[in-house]
Amino acid sequence: MNFLESLKISASGLFAQRKRMDVIAENLSNIETTRTQKGGPYRRKMIVVSAEPVEEFGEILGSQLEGVRVEAVVEDKTPFKIVHNPGHPDADKDGNVHKPNVDLVVEMTNMTIARNTYAANLAALKSTRQMVLKALEIGKA
């Protein structure tokens, strides 16, 4: 078994979840942003993650094992929230303000999932490290 490939799979998961947390933090920080440089309210962002095959494991085990790769950060195309607030500087002629399509509950749920997935990848990384150390101890004997 190639321990380095196992470490690579865990590391790819750690990177993907860290990137997901970065995007969630950006979404939360812009939850009330009604005016961006592009014009209009902030649009929620999401990451696209795809499987990344690890060839060496596939040859050894006769199956395809995969890590992950962050493909892109994309904007969520769901409609903006509309709030009636005629006193707001960004209100239209009817007194409606277009608010970002960021939902606090969705973002907090995604943050919890990312945190748990990050912890699972970290645990796998630590287990692999312990196996390497045990293998080295056996080799000394």
Describe this structure in words.
This protein has three helices and four strands. The strands form two sheets. The chain has a two-stranded antiparallel sheet with strand order 1-2. Helix content is 50%, strand content 21%. It is elongated, with a radius of gyration of 22 Å. The mean pLDDT is 89. It has one domain. The chain has helices at residues 3-29, 55-61, 104-140, and strands at 45-54, 65-75, 81-84, 96-99. By secondary structure, it is of the alpha+beta class.
Which labels suit this protein?
141 residues; alpha+beta; 3 helices
Secondary structure elements and pairings:
Blueprint: H1 3-29, E1 45-54, H2 55-61, E2 65-75, E3 81-84, E4 96-99, H3 104-140
| Span between termini | 20 Å
What spatial order of strands do you see in the largest sheet? 1-2
Overall number of structural domains: 1
**Count of helical stretches:** 3
Strand content: 15-25%
| Topology, number of strands | 4
Q: Major β-sheet, in short? A: 2 strands, antiparallel
The chain-level mean pLDDT equals 89
Q: What is the string of SSEs from the N terminus onward?
A: HEHEEEH
Compute the CA-based radius of gyration. Answer: 22 Å
Uncertain stretches: none
Morphology call: elongated
Q: What class would the helix/strand composition place it in?
A: alpha+beta
Provide the helix percentage.
40-55%
Summarize, please:
This protein is an alpha+beta fold. The protein has helices at residues 3-29, 55-61, 104-140, and strands at residues 45-54, 65-75, 81-84, 96-99.
